[in-house]
Amino acid sequence: MSPIKPTVVIVGRPNVGKSTLFNRLVGRKLALVDDTPGVTRDRREGAAQLFDLDFTIVDTAGFEDADAASLAGRMRAQTDAALGEADVALLVFDARAGVTPLDRHFAQWLRSHDMKVLLVANKAEGRAGEGGVAESYELGLGAPIQISAEHGEGLADLYEALMPVLDPIVAANALPEEEPDESPEAEEARRYAEPLKFAIVGRPNAGKSTLINRLLGQDRLVVGPEAGITRDSIAIPWEYNGRAVRLIDTAGLRKRARVIDKLEKMSVADTKHAVDFAEVVVLLLDATLGLEAQDLRIADLVLSEGRGLIVALNKWDVAADQSSLFQGVRKALDEGLAQIKGVPLLTVSGQTGKGLDTLMKVAFEARDAWSRRVSTSALNRWFEAALDRNPPPAPHGRRIKLRYATQVTSRPPTFVVFGNRTDELPESYRRYLVNGLRDELGFEGVPIRLTFRGGKNPFDGDR
């Protein structure tokens, strides 16, 4: 068990560089950054390191005064919730723009919280920010820490300010060192305890964020009737029945021809990156709209990246003619995803919670199959039986000889078959072997990669 890290939350008005600072501290571009105000809408967590300080950093939406029921109001509620869980707040303002009325309002609001607040003057490189730095003393939060998140300047000063606050928290959370246990049982337990990296993808307004909020049992993500609220992928640590999960919410994927906005293009690229990061992906469909060609394209993207796939019909509680809808989607998936049979199709409701326990059970089972390794002896017993049932063809009267198979890796399961004249093997025979692997060796619904290589078995005596 790892000690609990202290949490630092970045707050401030829109477009002062909060996400740029977040990316700087986590060491990679996890949050979307653009000149458009209000890009960040959900709070995002990441593992930050600043020299020898390790902590959890939280990026938040820009703070605005707005009605609680509006999108801006729901974004502000997420910022408020992040502050309630944090140990330190970094109030970021734009030194070049100076102190604005909204900065003053935010500083007054933060002073009412019982927590440590550090004032951060971003974009303070050069002389353009000197006036804003001088103005910021009126906020009553002490001397500002002058940085440039974009250029990485001033991080040593930020470290000096954070260290005396975070060190006592780290010391209080420290755990006694345990002797490592290298037994097979301990190794299996560690694998079991690895977080399931579980991404939820789909078209805009399919209910992805609502579904995650229902799983978490809290309003963790901003939701509403407006399509496209989620703009960047949000990874959320969670625990389901004692097992670690990393839930990943993503931006909705529309048809490529409709994606013309620069920010939406960035969101699409971020969603594809989230698929790369995931182990299992659930493609969420809106049951009131059924299956469309774009859904099949998204499914094909997931499978081409070699990830486990689950298809879930959301909003099932309000779907009409449920039986024919389910059968129609099942048939369309089987026909449209010819490269893989048996993709799990589930019915769920993010609004009511129906089917979510089944969804998580199937997700863990999909990862188990995706991670499965088959011993070489068991694999070749199956392989020899498959060749006996249906020998390879003999194009032009010349027999193709397949000698043996081996699994080179898992996640996704990847196999190599050795033989001679394998380049003449028809695609139909490759599909026969892939389907046999899936049906008989426990890889149902999992993408399988199978390649062929020439050359003889080095252990074969008739070389």
UniProtKB/TrEMBL annotation:
<dbReference type="InterPro" id="IPR006073">
    <property type="entry name" value="GTP-bd"/>
</dbReference>
<keyword id="KW-0547">Nucleotide-binding</keyword>
<keyword id="KW-0342">GTP-binding</keyword>
<feature type="domain" description="EngA-type G">
    <location>
        <begin position="196"/>
        <end position="371"/>
    </location>
</feature>
<dbReference type="Pfam" id="PF14714">
    <property type="entry name" value="KH_dom-like"/>
</dbReference>
<feature type="binding site">
    <location>
        <begin position="249"/>
        <end position="253"/>
    </location>
    <ligand>
        <name>GTP 2</name>
    </ligand>
</feature>
<dbReference type="InterPro" id="IPR015946">
    <property type="entry name" value="KH_dom-like_a/b"/>
</dbReference>
<dbReference type="InterPro" id="IPR031166">
    <property type="entry name" value="G_ENGA"/>
</dbReference>
<feature type="binding site">
    <location>
        <begin position="59"/>
        <end position="63"/>
    </location>
    <ligand>
        <name>GTP 1</name>
    </ligand>
</feature>
<comment type="similarity">
    <text>Belongs to the TRAFAC class TrmE-Era-EngA-EngB-Septin-like GTPase superfamily. EngA (Der) GTPase family.</text>
</comment>
<dbReference type="InterPro" id="IPR032859">
    <property type="entry name" value="KH_dom-like"/>
</dbReference>
<protein>
    <recommendedName>
        <fullName>GTPase Der</fullName>
    </recommendedName>
</protein>
<comment type="function">
    <text>GTPase that plays an essential role in the late steps of ribosome biogenesis.</text>
</comment>
<dbReference type="Pfam" id="PF01926">
    <property type="entry name" value="MMR_HSR1"/>
</dbReference>
<feature type="binding site">
    <location>
        <begin position="12"/>
        <end position="19"/>
    </location>
    <ligand>
        <name>GTP 1</name>
    </ligand>
</feature>
<dbReference type="InterPro" id="IPR016484">
    <property type="entry name" value="GTPase_Der"/>
</dbReference>
<feature type="domain" description="EngA-type G">
    <location>
        <begin position="6"/>
        <end position="170"/>
    </location>
</feature>
<feature type="binding site">
    <location>
        <begin position="122"/>
        <end position="125"/>
    </location>
    <ligand>
        <name>GTP 1</name>
    </ligand>
</feature>
<dbReference type="GO" id="GO:0005525">
    <property type="term" value="F:GTP binding"/>
</dbReference>
<dbReference type="InterPro" id="IPR027417">
    <property type="entry name" value="P-loop_NTPase"/>
</dbReference>
<comment type="subunit">
    <text>Associates with the 50S ribosomal subunit.</text>
</comment>
<feature type="binding site">
    <location>
        <begin position="314"/>
        <end position="317"/>
    </location>
    <ligand>
        <name>GTP 2</name>
    </ligand>
</feature>
<keyword id="KW-0690">Ribosome biogenesis</keyword>
<keyword id="KW-0677">Repeat</keyword>
<dbReference type="GO" id="GO:0042254">
    <property type="term" value="P:ribosome biogenesis"/>
</dbReference>
<feature type="binding site">
    <location>
        <begin position="202"/>
        <end position="209"/>
    </location>
    <ligand>
        <name>GTP 2</name>
    </ligand>
</feature>
<dbReference type="InterPro" id="IPR005225">
    <property type="entry name" value="Small_GTP-bd"/>
</dbReference>
